[in-house]
Automatic annotation (TrEMBL):
<dbReference type="InterPro" id="IPR017871">
    <property type="entry name" value="ABC_transporter-like_CS"/>
</dbReference>
<keyword id="KW-1003">Cell membrane</keyword>
<feature type="domain" description="ABC transmembrane type-1">
    <location>
        <begin position="33"/>
        <end position="315"/>
    </location>
</feature>
<dbReference type="Pfam" id="PF00664">
    <property type="entry name" value="ABC_membrane"/>
</dbReference>
<dbReference type="InterPro" id="IPR027417">
    <property type="entry name" value="P-loop_NTPase"/>
</dbReference>
<keyword id="KW-0472">Membrane</keyword>
<dbReference type="InterPro" id="IPR003593">
    <property type="entry name" value="AAA+_ATPase"/>
</dbReference>
<feature type="transmembrane region" description="Helical">
    <location>
        <begin position="171"/>
        <end position="190"/>
    </location>
</feature>
<dbReference type="InterPro" id="IPR039421">
    <property type="entry name" value="Type_1_exporter"/>
</dbReference>
<feature type="transmembrane region" description="Helical">
    <location>
        <begin position="141"/>
        <end position="165"/>
    </location>
</feature>
<protein>
    <submittedName>
        <fullName>ATP-binding cassette subfamily B protein</fullName>
    </submittedName>
</protein>
<dbReference type="GO" id="GO:0016887">
    <property type="term" value="F:ATP hydrolysis activity"/>
</dbReference>
<feature type="transmembrane region" description="Helical">
    <location>
        <begin position="64"/>
        <end position="85"/>
    </location>
</feature>
<feature type="transmembrane region" description="Helical">
    <location>
        <begin position="258"/>
        <end position="279"/>
    </location>
</feature>
<feature type="transmembrane region" description="Helical">
    <location>
        <begin position="30"/>
        <end position="52"/>
    </location>
</feature>
<dbReference type="GO" id="GO:0140359">
    <property type="term" value="F:ABC-type transporter activity"/>
</dbReference>
<dbReference type="GO" id="GO:0034040">
    <property type="term" value="F:ATPase-coupled lipid transmembrane transporter activity"/>
</dbReference>
């Protein structure tokens, strides 16, 4: 499946410009100070080379004590200034860089969390983690490289070359001849780096995936003795990352022999030409020559760093593209521009001619359904028939490809998402709890709920007794996804959360399946009270939980096959009747009696 957050095709130039624009807009002051410090660092480097002429001339005439002391003081001043400027540059670059990482991590997360459920179905969570963690760091790295290398090293190099040309124009030309050769060598290296970096990120993603599956699937790993299998996967993943790291380091380092060799040629050329100059009768003063040679030697380091810069840019670029890909991704569930909040009503939920599929094949087809306001409806039918999908569409977690989903006659497609979600409470098959206290988990439904309201909701969900017996009561931490609690306890907290929300439509998808029949009966009784005047839709495989429903809808292969009261469906002798007979046994009288009681 194509990844909508795939890297944008933009070239290096536009990507760098965009990052710099973003970085300077957010952290212009910090970068401004750092760049000013870099200008001072570059200037002081040129000054060191420049002052050599003065030093040599002063040493050639040591009787002039004033000149010697002035030179010595100048050297001290230059180095003190260079040290202070280097410190300022490092501190401000680091502060700006850390802020940039935080900003991109937040922006990427913020964009991701506003995507629809479909995006998270398509994208592996390990991939998402990698994009947030590695991608944001790559953005900082790229800005750092550009600012430090392009500004400081380029300015330093320009200053030093300026000194060289001023002191010895011919010799400068000779030494600069090696430049084009260096560029050619670096181009070859770059091509290799690009291909390795792409696969490096895939290898990283596998490490995150193994970690996540180890944590989430630890029970399966233990019970099926999969420890060695997981170790093998991790070993493979970390080795792949290691191999690629080594290749990248090798390529980055390959710039060194190229530059070293070329530097040797440049210096040898300078020696030969200056010897020829002397013989040819164009002598330079020792001071001029010393100043030139110092500038040439000092130019070597920034030149080497600049030669590595392109390789480092290429390694960071893959992560940067990932981040920009997410930031530029269209909203997978965009609100209509003229979307309005749903108007209040009694909570009638309706589907008209709804067709929808997660992929190409439709899961529900041309569905017409009415869940009347204030009534309880039950969805039953074989597994995979589309019951949960109907609830997903009602919550607008997915948009129908055809037809309309309406609340109180208002099409959800034209409503703001927040107003739709506000009207609906949901307890699903897989209860999710946050890694915080029991109280905070329930309060997620309504942040302004008082402690008394939280506890009342827990009472209704038959959770209060067990919560009171926990070591810190409502303040007990529940662990990652409620791992310190039993399945039934988790479900009761999820039900309490849904009750606290006080919305007028309540959806329950196998919400009491993890409970023993005694607890289930208690909750059913409480839920019947809480949902009395609400539009309620219940999915349950255990028919005992839905016998009191106002209507029962039998769904199979995405279609409504039967609907009616329990009495109607039993009398119709269709698929519901067969399901009913299978669960209770034809000779069992109790549910029939219950049906009578439900009238
Ligand atoms: N996120 C998804 N991506 C792709 N296909 C999905 C997704 N969720 C469900 N399906 C498919 O849609 C069909 C209907 O699934 P759904 O969960 O709605 O059925 P259900 O009646 O609720 O089943 P059950 O009773 O087992 O929960 C199934 O074939 C399922 O494989």
């Amino acid at each position: 499946m194509s990844d909508p957050s795939a890297a944008p095709a933009a070239g290096l130039g536009p990507i760098i410009m965009r990052l710099l624009r973003d970085g300077f807009r957010e952290q212009g002051r910090l970068y401004g100070v750092a760049i000013a410090a870099m200008v001072v660092v570059a200037g002081s480097a040129a000054a060191v080379a420049w002052v050599m002429e003065w030093i040599i001339d002063a040493l050639g005439n040591p009787e002039n004590r004033g000149a010697v002391i002035a030179v010595a003081s100048t050297v001290i001043a230059i180095f003190v200034i260079k040290g202070a400027a280097t410190y300022t540059q490092s501190v401000f670059m680091a502060r700006a860089g850390n802020r940039i990482v935080a900003s991109y991590q937040y922006r990427v997360y913020s964009k991701l969390v506003s995507q629809g459920v479909g995006y998270f179905n398509r994208t592996e969570s390990s991939d998402i983690i990698m994009r947030v963690v590695q991608g944001a760091t790559a953005c900082r790295t790229l800005i750092d490289i550009i600012v430090v290398s392009a500004v400081r090293d380029t300015l330093t190099l320009v200053g030093l070359i300026g000194v060289m040309i001023y002191q010895q124009p011919t010799l400068s030309l000779v030494s600069l001849l090696v430049g084009p050769v260096a560029l050619w060598g670096i181009r070859i290296i770059l091509r290799r780096v690009k291909s390795i970096m792409e696969s490096q990120l895939t290898a990283f993603s596998e490490i995150y995936r193994v970690l996540q599956e180890s944590s989430g699937g630890i029970h399966v790993i233990k019970v099926f003795s999969l420890e060695d299998h997981m170790r093998g996967r991790m070993d493979g993943a970390v080795r792949r990352v290691e191999d690629r790291m080594n290749s990248i380091s090798r390529l980055e380092s390959a710039t060194s022999p190229i530059i070293e060799t070329l530097a040797g040629f440049a210096i040898a050329g300078v020696i030969l030409v200056s010897a020829w100059n002397v013989l040819g009768g164009q002598p330079s003063t020792p001071g001029e020559l010393m100043s030139f040679v110092t500038a040439l030697m000092m130019a070597y380091e920034p030149a080497k760093r600049l030669s590595r810069m392109r390789v480092s840019i290429e390694t960071a670029l893959v992560g940067v593209r990932m981040v920009l890909g997410i930031l530029d991704m269209p909203e997978s569930q965009a609100e209509a521009r003229d979307a309005r909040p749903l108007k209040p009503g009694r909570g009638a939920l309706e589907m008209r001619g709804v067709t929808f599929g997660y992929g190409a094949a439709p899961v529900v087809r041309n569905l017409d359904l009415l869940f009347s306001a204030g009534q309880t409806s039950a969805l039953v039918g074989p597994s995979g028939g589309g019951k949960s999908t109907i609830l997903n569409l009602a919550m607008r977690l997915y948009e129908p490809s055809e037809g309309e989903v309406l609340i109180d006659g208002q099409d959800l497609a034209g409503a703001t998402l927040s107003s739709v979600r506000q009207r609906i409470s949901f307890v699903g098959q897989n209860t999710f709890l946050f890694s915080t206290s029991v109280r905070e988990n329930i309060r997620m439904a309504r942040s302004d709920a008082t402690d008394a309201e939280v506890e009342a909701a827990a009472q209704d969900a038959n959770a209060h007794t067990f919560v009171s017996e926990l070591p810190q009561g409502y303040e007990t931490m529940v662990g990652e996804n409620g791992s310190f609690l039993s399945g039934g306890q988790r479900q009761r907290l999820a039900i309490a959360r849904a009750i606290l929300k006080r919305s007028d439509i309540m959806l329950f998808d196998e919400a009491t399946s993890a409970l023993d029949s005694h607890s289930e009966a208690l909750i059913q009784e409480a839920l019947a009270r809480v949902t009395r005047d609400k539009t309620t839709v219940v999915i349950a495989h255990r028919l005992s939980t839905i016998l009191g429903a106002d209507q029962i809808i039998y769904v199979e292969e995405g279609r409504v096959v039967e609907r009616g009261t329990l009495r109607d469906l039993l009398a119709a002798d269709g698929p519901f009747r067969r399901l009913y007979d299978r669960q209770f046994g034809v000779a069992e009288p109790a549910p029939i009696a219950l049906a009578e009681a439900a009238e």
